[in-house]
Write a structure and sequence with these properties.
heterodimer; A: alpha/beta; Rossmann fold; six-stranded mixed sheet; four-stranded antiparallel sheet; 41% helix; disordered C terminus; B: 309 residues; mainly alpha; MetI-like fold; elongated; disordered N terminus
């Protein structure tokens, strides 16, 4: 159960936005992909699952358990999605269908990959809601997304992604739209869920501080290229590339701010 | 426990929108109007006070009386019977063109938003070209080939309004298509058709319902108008448009007679429009009032939220 991305390229309307990215996620590993906005992190995540818009052209290779995912027919991709690889998105506002109760959305995700009755799927939805630590799961599954807070919605999105017990979870900036205290809670939840289930994790962020809390290894992207890679501790202690140094400064900027004038 | 509880909840949710609809004054008016027109149309199949096409020269231009509740026209036909018979025509045309407009509109909108880029862009242009054709022109084109009949009205209004449904729902489809939850639905393994039926169409339903009710209302008007011009119902068929056309010629002498078909058309169109508006409000959970625990109505705060995380 491993993901190997090799020389991945993505062109959108003739412009190369991802230029030869390679990384590897072993079974049970937690990899962070970090970079500023526009560095190609989210596109890489979408490319792995074949979810890029039809204007994008991909090259290179994405191997999942030795099976090439790029160019796989839609029907076979649909089996990999959710069953093997789940994904959580950045914006909790639009991540859920506004006109369906959250329980139905979780149950739907369960029923795609497992044959079970509606009542069983509903029970499973309540169990999944409990697993992501939503308060009062029996009643919350009957609510609509707009009746939930941002953190709760992100938990529901996580529950949908995890409902079929994928082997790999891709989290695309799942905490960026949340405020700091809730960020910490969601991060902790994600880490616990991933380690409990022995899943692999690809965590995408622009915040090195967040990365240090969840990932063991990191890949730093800039302008669609890998500029640095290694264990997160190394990236934090001894950043080689100026991009990583910049990200590190940003992550600690709240501490530096009082002495910023003296520093420069 | 909750396994037993789950079923009534689902059943209640299924009919919830109907109660919501009844609670809105506009929805209640629309429902009643549409129900009355439908019922009258149904009754007219079996019974009308008089035969709507029987002529009685002795009873020309009678004012409303017990014998003729709405009076008679210039050939002595009973206006109430004619209006009842006309309701049948109206229901037939409204439903027929509603179905054609929905199918045509949704197929065009889907082709204009879900297909590869070159196809959807050219479809958008195609829709823009089609929208330039007025319903009247389409009706004239169809009737020049097949002659005037109610089917001409149904097809021309259906096509004409199908195009405008497509015009309005296509950008809406594109907008919903770009939402994360669509990508999320695809990423959890739903096929494109499943995404279309379960996530896309339900989300454009509010816009679609308003358009549909509007096009059905216009179908009623267009039937009246096209029949008036002679492209629709034949003069012997009971139709509100034909009736109005006949009676308005004498409006200076017998003003009251022309009021009845005019009133029937106006109320039906108004009812359909209000029903569409209310339906949209009733079926959209983000608009439903008083059930939002974050913003409950003042008097009914019964639930203090636990940790909101």
């Amino acid at each position: 159960m491993s993901l190997i991305v090799k020389d991945l390229t993505i062109d959108i309307e003739g412009r190369r936005v991802v230029d030869g990215i390679s990384f590897e996620v072993a079974d049970g590993a937690r990899l962070g992909i970090i970079g500023e906005s526009g560095s190609g992190k989210s596109l890489t995540a979408l490319a792995i699952l074949g979810l890029l818009p039809d204007t994008a052209v991909t090259g290179g290779s994405v191997l999942w358990n030795g099976r090439e995912l790029l160019g796989l027919p839609e029907k076979e991709l649909a089996q990999v999605r959710g069953d093997d690889i789940g994904i959580v998105f950045q914006e909790p506002r639009t991540a859920l269908n506004p006109i369906r109760t959250v329980g139905r959305q979780i149950a739907e995700s369960v029923r795609i990959h497992q044959r079970m009755s509606k009542a069983d799927a509903w029970q499973r939805a309540i169990a999944e809601a409990r697993r992501v630590a939503l308060p009062d799961p029996e009643t919350i599954v009957k609510r609509y997304p707009h009746q939930l807070s941002g953190g709760q919605r992100q938990r529901v999105a996580t529950a949908i992604a995890l409902a079929c017990d994928p082997r790999l979870l891709i989290a695309d900036e799942p905490t960026t739209a949340l405020d700091v205290t809730i960020q910490a809670e969601v991060l902790e939840l994600l880490r616990d869920l991933v380690t409990d289930a022995g899943m692999s994790l690809v965590f995408i962020t622009h915040d090195l501080a967040v990365l240090s809390q969840i990932a063991t290894h990191g890949v730093v992207l800039a302008h669609g290229r890998v500029v640095e890679a290694g264990p997160v501790q190394h990236l934090l202690r001894d950043p080689q590339s100026p991009i990583t140094q910049g990200l590190l400064r940003d992550a600690t900027s709240t501490l530096w701010r009082p002495t910023k004038g003296a520093e420069s | 426990m909750s396994e037993i509880a789950a079923r009534p909840v689902a059943a209640r949710a299924r009919w919830h929108w109907l109660r919501q609809l009844w609670r809105l004054p506009t929805g209640r008016f629309g429902l009643i109007t549409v129900a009355v027109v439908g019922l009258v149309a149904l009754v007219s199949v079996f019974w009308t006070p008089y035969d709507p096409i029987s002529i009685d020269v002795n009873a020309r231009w009678q004012l409303p009386s017990l014998a003729h509740l709405l009076g008679t026209d210039g050939t002595g036909r009973d206006i109430l019977s004619l209006i009842m018979g006309g309701a049948r025509t109206t229901v037939f045309v409204a439903i027929g063109s509603g179905i054609i407009a929905s199918v045509f509109g949704i197929v065009l909108a889907a082709l204009g938003s879900l297909t590869p880029r070159w196809a959807r862009e050219s479809m958008a242009v195609f829709i823009d070209i089609l929208i330039a054709f007025p319903v009247l022109l389409i009706a004239m084109m169809i009737s020049s080939v097949w002659g005037g009949s109610l089917w001409v009205v149904i097809w021309s209004v259906g096509i004409g309004f199908g195009v405008s449904i497509a015009r309005v729902t296509r950008p809406e489809l594109r907008r919903v298509l770009q939402s994360d939850f669509i990508v999320a639905a695809r990423s959890s393994g739903l096929s494109n058709t499943q995404v279309l039926w379960r996530h896309l169409l339900p989300n454009i339903a509010p816009v679609f319902i308003v358009q549909l009710s509007w096009s059905m209302a216009v179908a009623v008007l267009a039937e009246a108008g096209l029949s008036y011009l002679g492209y629709g119902a034949s003069p012997t068929e009971p139709s509100w448009g034909v009736l109005l056309a006949n009676l308005q010629a004498y409006i200076g002498i017998h003003p009251l007679a022309a009021v009845w078909p005019g009133l029937a058309i106006t109320i039906t169109v108004l009812g359909l429009n209000l029903l569409g508006d209310a339906l949209r409000e009733a079926t959209d959970p983000t608009l439903s009032r008083g059930r939002d625990p974050l913003h409950p109505p003042r008097a009914s705060i019964r639930h203090v939220p636990e940790v909101i995380s």
